[in-house]
Design goal:
The chain has about 110 residues and is an all-alpha fold. It has five helices and no strands. It has helices spanning about 10-25, 30-45, 50-65, 70-85, 90-105. Helix 2 runs antiparallel to helix 3. The longest helix is centred in the N-terminal third of the chain and has 17 residues, at about 30-45.
Length: about 110
Amino acid sequence: MQGVRGEYGVAETTSTRALDLYTNPGDRHGQANSHLNLGITQRLQGAYEPATTNLTKALALFGEFGDHDGEAETRNALGELALAHPDAGDPRTHLTTALTLARDTGGLG
């Protein structure tokens, strides 16, 4: 969530609203991005359990439709979360998987 600049409450409200809007028409990609943004915002606020839940949902959704860029971004977010919250998984695994996905999709030069 670029441009948030500490306005976590606004970011969380906006992401939650976006998730609601994307859920009604069944826009899975919009849902994945909303879960990703919610998870990042929650991690920044120290709400590690909900962040883990939302990032895990985002990863599953991106995986369903083969969005490797989304998977890489979500793995990065999970890796950052796992550094502070071990229940989110192994940070090294998340971050190296993110790097591999980014390289495979041309996300890195």
